[in-house]
Design goal:
Helices cover 68% and strands 0% of the residues. By secondary structure, it is mainly α. The chain has one domain.
Amino acid sequence: MSYGYSQRLADACNKAGSDSVGIMLGRLCIEHGVPVNDVAKKFAVSRSTVYNWFWGVHKPKASLKEQILLFIEQLSKRT
């Protein structure tokens, strides 16, 4: 795993349902090697908040959901 992502996190994201924006974000960040630090800076949150989204422990605030969905769309288009 690159950028410090553990295999455990990758497996958890892949097994989880895709209804959570945070888990979808986690899958794509792991797949495309986007560092947690970059995601945290982009959305002005802490790294631990981003990890909580990826694990499905917490959902992103409603005020960030649209921005995250746009970022997910951008990541999805990467080859």
